[in-house]
Amino acid sequence: METTKSIYCLSPNIALRKVDDLNKYWAFNLVDGSQYELNTTSYWLLENFDGKNSLNVIIGEFLNVFEVEELQYRADIMEIVGEFINQALIIEKRCSHEKD
User: Fold this and answer.
1) Which residue among 11, 27, 62, 80 is least packed, with the fewest CB closer than 10 Å?
2) From CA 77, how far away is CA 13, in angstroms rounded?
3) Residues 12, 21: contact at Cβ < 8 Å?
């Protein structure tokens, strides 16, 4: 179960793409070919799961960037993170580029 102290990174099997002019965003699974169309906020969240900051820090940055009410969006973000985990878009810590 995800907690705000957890640190996540994008799964090594996932590639993010965007077309800013069209406000279109996608996540592609490079192993099984699955693709996910994303909204702006979901793309922003996935882009910020770099294995360096806790979920709590990312939520704080999200609230500043999107200037939304904390109580409502904190719960929404936790739900979205759960979906990202279930879809294997993010994994807890241990990024593939991380060195021991």
Assistant:
1) 80
2) 22
3) no
